[in-house]
Amino acid sequence: MKSKFKNLISSINKEKLYLISKILMTTIVVIVYFLLLFNHGLSFNERKISATPLVLCIIILLWIKNPLNEMWNKWIARLGFLITPFVCYLLIEFFYGKFILYMKPICILFNLIIYALILFLLYVICNRTKIAALMLCWITFIFGFVSYNVYEFRGFSIVAFDFTSINTAASVSGEYQFTFRQMDYCILLAFIGFSVFLCKLHSYKGLVLKKRVIALVLCMISIGSFVKITYFTDYLEKKGVHVRMFCPTNSYRLIGSALTVVLSGKVLIIKDPAGYALNKVETVTAPYLQEQKQTFSKNTTTTEPNLIVIMNEAYSDLKSIADFKVNQDYMPFYRSLSENTIKGRAYVSVYGGNTANSEFEFMTGNTLAFFPQRVAPLQMYVNDISPSINYDLKQQGFSKTLAMHPYHPGGWNRNAAYPLLGFDQFISENDFENPELVRKYISDQEDFNRIIEEYENSKKTSDDPYYMFNVTMQNHGKYTYNYNNLPLDIKITDKELSDNSKYGTTEVERYLTLIKKTDDAFKNLVNYFKQVDEPTVIVMFGDHQPALKKFQDALIKRNKNDSTQITYQVPFIVWANYDIEEEQVEKTSLNYLSAKVFDVMNLKKTAYQNYLLDLSKDIPAITANGYWGADGKFYHLNDKSSPYYKKILEYKYVQYNGFFDRKNRVEDFFFLPDD
């Protein structure tokens, strides 16, 4: 009698619990639906209209009883389990607006395999098909929603290396603002609908222990085989499937979210370069360390100049490719500077974007030549203290190491990487009030005014030399759209290049107008520091050329000289308000430029910087695309017939030791010794 009563109470409680859960789920669905309806006003569009029948179906499904017998329940439950990977794959791709049918079949297949393997693993862990399927659904939704919001915040979506820096992500998570778009509400409703469908089906017991162990072994074998194919073969590369690490969000759209995250992990596997050994590094570093000891023992105290470094977004001189006619010069002030000036051409590793790689090369003296293709070291590998000029300047008494970039602080992971590169403070767009905009970006004039403001504030509290590293934003591509705040002052008057449909002439005019604004702002900055009594050095260089390929290709055809890597060259200038030896540099690269600046300023240099200056005599310029020898010839990085190949290997080993082999790093070679 007691047991019957207990069973009755238990069934009543279950019914109440089931009723409460239905009411709760109905309430959630209605709330989500109303949030969707009132998103951007009450006006209807295709997303709001298409969500209406979905909501009705979910509510009906919630409240009707399951009419299926045991056999049908079992088979439909199995079907629901099997289609879960496809449902998750289909729905997550809508976060980025790319429909599944536009992807290559090989990408679809590998994405489905990833979801299936995760589902298999979840099933082995929880031993219930329904629970495993529900877990996969909500892991997928949460990941898709978070990843898209991360993209909105910092400019690129989640990739594998983000999982290696959870602490960093947690430290900046307060800066993230998670918002729902109409599409997000629709995706959420779809996941709720599929989850309700799964929950309405009856559950069945899982595998017995023996079968579960077998399933676990099969799961591990399957995952291992998948990892081997994706990570340790070039199968997908041969199929044209790879991750664009410079812009992983594009890969999300092209090859799928899950496959992008998985493949992005390949670049985290850093192996010792072939032939690498610590004793080889020490053989290279030893004479420079000895020279450094002798130099420092003789060093006399001098007054360090202020140092302002400006890496100017997309700053280049298209006439360096070939001459063309314009109504007025777009960089007259730059061309006019000669006294106390060093300027010339620097070669960079990137074209049309990927700014962070250029700043990384300048700050560290490292070259992209020895990193995996399509990576951004600043974004991916700076997860511990890394040698840079910022530590060297700090040790030599500069007031503070100050970085500025008038855009999102999370771009290229700067807000996490900069402190590890020795910056004390980072000024971003969040620190500007009502700034002047050109197009939609903070202008170079506004940016340079802030340099002056920070300099003046610094001198109010300290007589120590001032230092700022500044990455501008004004000239950022694309150059497609008209803006009322950017009248086109520069016009192309070259008849051969006037066809806009053929050469994109209007975009070029817009770009050159921006460069003229940069030139004007730079003139104002230089004129200010001409009046400053303290010795000051201003360095400015471009990070890359703009992506104006039609026009650049037309100029290359005009070029009768050597056009090797001509779209990978940018102007640089080192100007001082005191007497320095003038120089016109035909060819250098950004990994050498900071050492050159230290030399000009008579600052203490690390042994690594002295090594780089010596190396530049044999290899004047090196980028991810190759290098020039002192003989004037261009060589590919793996050209073993090159007379400089031994030098290249030495540089590779030394750089690897300083950046990756931290346990065995020759510290005194990369950092200044303590006084």
From TrEMBL:
UniProt-listed Pfam families: Sulfatase
Annotated SUPFAM superfamilies: Alkaline phosphatase-like
GO CC annotation: plasma membrane
Places the protein is found: Cell membrane
TM segment ranges: 20-42, 48-64, 76-96, 102-124, 131-151, 182-201, 213-232
CDD domains listed in its UniProt record: LTA_synthase
Residues annotated as signal peptide: none
Source organism of this protein record: Anaerosacchariphilus polymeriproducens
Domain Sulfatase N-terminal: 305-602
Source species, domain of life: Bacteria
Keywords: Cell membrane, Membrane, Transmembrane, Transmembrane helix
Pathway this chain belongs to: Cell wall biogenesis; lipoteichoic acid biosynthesis
Topology in the lipid bilayer: Multi-pass membrane protein
UniProt protein name: Sulfatase N-terminal domain-containing protein
